Each structure stands twice: as structure tokens, then as C-alpha cells.
Amino acid sequence: MVIALVTVFVIGYLLITLEHTLKINKSTFALIMCGVLWSIYSLCTHNVKEEALLTFLGETCEILMFLIAAMTIVEHIDRYGGFSFITEHIHAKNKRRMLWILSITTFFMSAVLDNMTTTIIMIMMLRRLLPDQKERWIFAGVLVLAANSGGAWSPIGDVTTIMLWMADKVTAMSLIENLLLPSIISVIVPVAIATRWIKNEPMPKPMARREEAIMMSQEHPHISKAILILGVAGLLFVPIFKTVTHLPPYMGMMMSLGVIWLVTEILISRYKIDPKLGGRVSQAMRHIDMSSILFFLGILMSVSALQQAGILHAVAGSLNDSIHEPVSIAGLIGILSSIIDNVPLVAACIKMFTGMSGADPTYLSYFVEDGLFWHLLTFTAGVGGSLLIIGSAAGVVAMGIEKIPFFWYFKRITFIAFLGYLAGILFIWLENFILV
Hints:
The chain is mainly α. 75% of the residues lie in helices and 0% in strands.
């Protein structure tokens, strides 16, 4: 049974990584893999309890509900032209300074929004600012690094941080306190190197926007600003809500979406907004990426099948026996996240390193809530995805929009991304083992 489960999982992963080559959405492979894995387990054991399956599904749906609500809020802000108020105020005298400004902006935007949405916004702006494609690729590659690093220190900045936060492996304030500086370092190092590749020439200012956003911001500029402020406030409300109520984050995100929905309906009625502009939340929900939601459903339930079969705990034991050092384990997982999607990797780690026991209390302390391992994993899984362009959602988005070749990214961006990755890990190591 174990050999069959692992074989199906490896084949499923391979097909997922070959999404662009095969030109088949990775969600199809994730869903099929999920069904096949659970079927094999059921046929081999004849003892799949419905309660266990529902428990795994419930844990997965918490993440899915959070993502659906968050993606709807972001899409709604964009439809009102809210993000244009940010991008229209980004100016610089030359391209090198612009690279720094865009990287810093991307870094902090992805901490509040998510790295995929932030990357889309920033790269769409690049398409108007830089006519030279090769130069635009350099900017886009660096912005992928900034987006992934920015998402690593925020509890709502990346799917993996959301997963760890919702699983009570990290808390919001501790995550920010321990990972903000390493994440900044992981951006500064590659940006400093990449600026040498950029010509020191003036930058143009115009930027493209979606048609309905242009009309909305022109006809109702005060409403566009209000939706931007309300949406960002709703996203920032979530970690505060969890801290105060101790309820799961998805509950706070759904509350934020409900408030934004209510306010929007009142504004539409009050100002007689044209329905053709698509200003309702229900219209925004039709444009969120449901294929990604289904991908997460399939991949997370696939990992749950491996956990139910006891495979993940066996792998955890092997890692502990062979390496038995949190920095090395997390560093290796981060490198793997550039090859394999970091969502299932983190999901597997949560299952593998939960409920550990042993005689070494110091080692076990690394795996408690806000322990060193979970902070390291949050950083390495997020930033490590930048090592290859297919290693993160931000990278895949950039690759799709700008048609960045895999091997071009590997040749020009992977090395500087790896230097930033190592610098961040080194800072965490020094902070926890040398400077204490």
C-alpha cells in the first residue's frame, strides 16, 4: 500500500510541475490524485472512517474559505480602481531607483494582500513602464523575490503562512517580530546585485488599468478611495480578530467580506452606480481564481491521505534521525519548495512535526507554537519558492504574463535569490544561537 500511495503521489506531483508543458491545469491532476490516493487507502485497509475524512476536509475548508473571502476582497478593490491610487504615486528619477521603490512597495503590499495578487498588479504596471522586454524580465524576477519575501513575515501574506497560522504553529506578532528583518535582508541582497544590471535611465510614468476601474475611479473617485481603505482595513482586521477572539482566521475574513459587501450595497444604492461597472461583491466573486481553490483542495486532501496512512510520520522520524537539526531541516524543505509546490510541503510538515515526542527537551522546544522550526519553515517555504520561477504562485504568474523562460530565470535570478535566501537563514541562525 505504501509503495502504491507514494508512487501515485510522485506521479501526481510530476504532472503538476509539468502543467505548462502539458497545457493542462494543475487542478485536474490534484483532484484526480486526491481521489486515487484515498481510494487506494480505502481498498487496502477497508477501514476509512467517515469521521476522519470529515475532519481532514474541515481543516482544508478552513483554508479554502479564508482564500475565497480574501481573493474576493482583493478583486473587489481592483474593480473599483483602488490599487491605482497606490501605483499612480510611484515615481522615480531613474530605473535603478525605480527598482528599489518597486521592490519595497511589492514587499509591503504582499504582506497585506498576497504575493500572487501583488505580483499581478506590479507586473501589469511594468508592461507600460518598460518597453524593453529583457529589462522588464529583470524587474519582474526581482519583484517575484520581493513578493515572496514580503509574504513570509505576514500571517496573511502567503498561503503557507496562513496555513501555519491557522494550524496554531505561529502567532501573528511573533511571526512579524522574528521574520521581518530576515525577510528584508532576503530582498536587499538580490536587489543590490540586480541594480547593476539595470541602465541608469529615466523612467516613464503612465500605467494601464482595467476599463471598469478607470470608469469607476473617474466617475466616483471618493468611492474608489473608500473601498481601498475599507478593503485594506478588512484584511488587517483579521489577525487582530484572531488574537482577541481566538477564533480561526477564516471567521474574521468572512466578517470583513460581509462588512465590505454591506457597505458596497449601500454605496451603490446611494450613488446610483451603473451595474455595468460591476461594482457589486457578487460580481467580483465570479472573477476569483476558483481553479486555484480547487487545486488547494486536491493537494491538501492528498497530503491528508498520506498522513492517514502514517507515511508522513515515518518521514518525520527519518529526518529527525538523519539530520536532527531544525535549521538544516527547514533549509532543505525551503530548497525543495522551489521544485515542489510549497503548499503541500508545508501541509506535510504540519502533519509530520505535530505531536513529536522524545528525550531531548531542547530539540522538542523547536517544534512548539512559535518555536524556531516553525519560524524557519515559514521563512524558507516562502522565500525558497523564489529559487525557481515555478516554485511559487508569484513566479508562475510572472512567467505567464511576461512569458519569462524557465532557464532565463534560472540563469539570471536563481543565484541572487539563493544569496538572499542564505542571508536570511544566516541572520535567523545568528539571532537564535550566537547573539542570545
